[in-house]
């Protein structure tokens, strides 16, 4: 477990080999995954100019080596191009018809994932959240981070989100300290002490630990490499880069966002939170969620996204 606990790499080859052995042993025990030391040593991390790192191993595990090389190369060049052609200053006035249209098309591309909870609110068995909120370090434009957020909607979880845009002044350093490198998504579970990279491993862990014998919906893991990049492309790099005029200090208390992953309007809000690097509590309210009643009691509406800022007086419905 300590190998996944976030010790910083960099103590010579033997320390790296030992960490790889521990990761392989843990994955084999938890997921029955096949893993060799050579695979871990040969893991290639593709860093794009956006600062995100995508493990080529992650693609290999899903679709095989033949597709992985082209996919990794595509992602390597995609984010810099999006940054080049993006709308620039996020504070400028926008064409909101265009914003809503592109975000709606992005949601259409990812249907049905990230839209509904697997825990029916009408069921006699009430969904119970973990004692301590899980902590997810991610950024909105990353397709692999999206995969994890879709799973969070299905599991109806309440999670602390720490956005890690390119140019981050806080959260990327936290990931380096906890895990040893900048790679996203990165999950820390304070209930078990486990931390991990690799979106597919994270999704499997979440369902095994908190899914109550449920499994990810059909195609959630596999579809990321087919349509997971579409929202990133359609949104032209939104939710990717830190806005230079953002405050360098986080607010005293975390904001709270009621939403579900594939809601087109919630996506626009999450993009802004990412560009501002504002940590927030994500309250999943997918179709069938038990939080729907909580939201209705709180504000008299089931409309999402619903943003609560405890640092100000007035909650916001977007």
Walk me through what this model shows.
Pfam families: GST_N_3 (PF13417). By secondary structure, the chain is an alpha+beta fold. The chain has two domains: 42 residues, no CATH class; 273 residues, Glutaredoxin, CATH 3.40.30. 43% of the residues lie in helices and 12% in strands. The strands form two sheets. The protein has an eight-stranded mixed β-sheet, sandwiched between helices. A hairpin with a 7-residue loop joins strand 9 and strand 10. The N and C termini lie far apart (41 Å). 39% of the residues are buried.
- Rg, please? 19 Å
Give the overall shape, derived from the CA principal axes. Answer: globular
The CATH superfamily of the largest domain is known as Glutaredoxin
Low-confidence stretches: 1-13, 33-73
List the domain count as a whole number: 2
Question: What is the topology?
Answer:
Blueprint: H1 13-31, H2 37-41, E1 45-47, E2 53-55, H3 56-63, H4 65-85, H5 96-110, E3 134-138, H6 143-155, E4 158-163, H7 171-179, E5 186-189, E6 194-196, H8 199-210, H9 220-227, H10 230-234, E7 255-259, H11 264-275, E8 280-284, H12 291-299, E9 306-308, E10 316-317
Parallel strand pairs: 3-4, 7-8
Antiparallel strand pairs: 1-2, 3-5, 4-8, 5-6, 7-9, 9-10
Helix pairs in contact: 3-4, 5-11, 6-8, 6-9
